[in-house]
Amino acid sequence: MALIPVEEALALLLSTAAPLGSETVLLEQADGRVLAAPVIARRTTPGADVSAMDGYALRALDASSVPATLELIGESAAGRPYAGRVAPGTTVRIFTGAVLPEGADSIIIQEDTRREGNAITLTEAATPGRHIRRAGGDFAAGEVLLAPGHRLRARDLALVAAGDVDTVSVARRPRVAMLSTGDELVRPGTGAAAHQVIVSNLYSVAALARAAGAEVTDLGILPDTMEATQAGVRAALDGGFDVLVTTGGASVGDHDLIAPALTAQGVDLAVHRIALRPGKPLMFGRSAATRTQVLGLPGNPVSAHVCALLFLVPLIKALQGLEVPAHPELEPARLAGDVKANEQRMDFQRAEIVGHAEGVPLVRALPVQDSSMLRNLARADVLLVRRPHAPAAAAGEMCEILRLED
């Protein structure tokens, strides 16, 4: 079976990833959610002309030259506006955020005044409109504040709240089930024997999925028998999940049972074996009966993490209606050391950022690229990407990287 290029595999995966629908949530529950409908302002902000400074509200005509002395007739504070009108020769004490009194068209900051009782002497000339935030200067009622497909950030929540909006329509979170396979696997903290392996990729892959917006359910560890593997797959497909992620058993050895178990349960494997290092055994497909997307990750923990970053994260984003490019989102960098020529698989090497040169990161591949080395994965900042059949490159040459921030 020919190896499928990474871009082609990702495009195939995303081609069947339709948004899952929407739900309405309270604003305090909306952080990180993806908007399914526009957020429309219900009020104008500011709702009136307000002061941008602490000082005095007045008619600019009364203070076009200084010194000028005006009569203090009242006060306007945030939430307590002055009810009267600023007449010629008068002024109102005003505070930041307070409504500009009727008749006033300028603010003089308090540092540019002297006060003696109700007599306010101005030492700075006034100009119309100075230090005033106009009504609607931020946005007006009826304006679209945020569009569908936008992932809400902390600063977005402030904008939505300021628009007098307390609930938002968001994309439903994809429900992701995770199945680990292997007789050798045990949970951390259980005192693993020398012949056993602690299941570690479960935690990194689940964290990537949650960060992308998914709800993750751990369905446990399956033993290496066809009966148990099929039963686990069947239960996952019948569990109402949008995505089933398996780790381990994805290759073609005698104990690699995931592919035949998935096929036996009606999953059409569109891809099995990708021109990718690490992660060649990766597979994915879809259940015709349940419409569950299935992603079979390698059991090797570094391979599983890289494949989840390249395929699972974009899938979860697409299921929430986000626009996802059908290729890894790479950025330019420069090499801090020489690299060898690459063969037919797209290679994602663990690398560190060691500085910057000419406006781009300067990166160095870590010396050991074995895909079982979790310490190097944790140490890396980026993946240094080597295209298929890329020639050898010397330090200082341009390269491409994929960020590992998650």
UniProtKB/TrEMBL annotation:
<keyword id="KW-0501">Molybdenum cofactor biosynthesis</keyword>
<dbReference type="GO" id="GO:0046872">
    <property type="term" value="F:metal ion binding"/>
</dbReference>
<keyword id="KW-0460">Magnesium</keyword>
<keyword id="KW-0479">Metal-binding</keyword>
<comment type="function">
    <text>Catalyzes the insertion of molybdate into adenylated molybdopterin with the concomitant release of AMP.</text>
</comment>
<dbReference type="Pfam" id="PF03453">
    <property type="entry name" value="MoeA_N"/>
</dbReference>
<dbReference type="GO" id="GO:0005829">
    <property type="term" value="C:cytosol"/>
</dbReference>
<feature type="domain" description="MoaB/Mog">
    <location>
        <begin position="177"/>
        <end position="318"/>
    </location>
</feature>
<dbReference type="InterPro" id="IPR001453">
    <property type="entry name" value="MoaB/Mog_dom"/>
</dbReference>
<dbReference type="GO" id="GO:0061599">
    <property type="term" value="F:molybdopterin molybdotransferase activity"/>
</dbReference>
<dbReference type="InterPro" id="IPR036688">
    <property type="entry name" value="MoeA_C_domain_IV_sf"/>
</dbReference>
<comment type="similarity">
    <text>Belongs to the MoeA family.</text>
</comment>
<comment type="pathway">
    <text>Cofactor biosynthesis; molybdopterin biosynthesis.</text>
</comment>
<protein>
    <recommendedName>
        <fullName>Molybdopterin molybdenumtransferase</fullName>
        <ecNumber>2.10.1.1</ecNumber>
    </recommendedName>
</protein>
<dbReference type="InterPro" id="IPR005111">
    <property type="entry name" value="MoeA_C_domain_IV"/>
</dbReference>
<keyword id="KW-0500">Molybdenum</keyword>
<dbReference type="Pfam" id="PF00994">
    <property type="entry name" value="MoCF_biosynth"/>
</dbReference>
<dbReference type="Pfam" id="PF03454">
    <property type="entry name" value="MoeA_C"/>
</dbReference>
<keyword id="KW-0808">Transferase</keyword>
<dbReference type="InterPro" id="IPR036135">
    <property type="entry name" value="MoeA_linker/N_sf"/>
</dbReference>
<dbReference type="InterPro" id="IPR008284">
    <property type="entry name" value="MoCF_biosynth_CS"/>
</dbReference>
<dbReference type="GO" id="GO:0006777">
    <property type="term" value="P:Mo-molybdopterin cofactor biosynthetic process"/>
</dbReference>
<dbReference type="InterPro" id="IPR036425">
    <property type="entry name" value="MoaB/Mog-like_dom_sf"/>
</dbReference>
<dbReference type="InterPro" id="IPR038987">
    <property type="entry name" value="MoeA-like"/>
</dbReference>
<dbReference type="InterPro" id="IPR005110">
    <property type="entry name" value="MoeA_linker/N"/>
</dbReference>
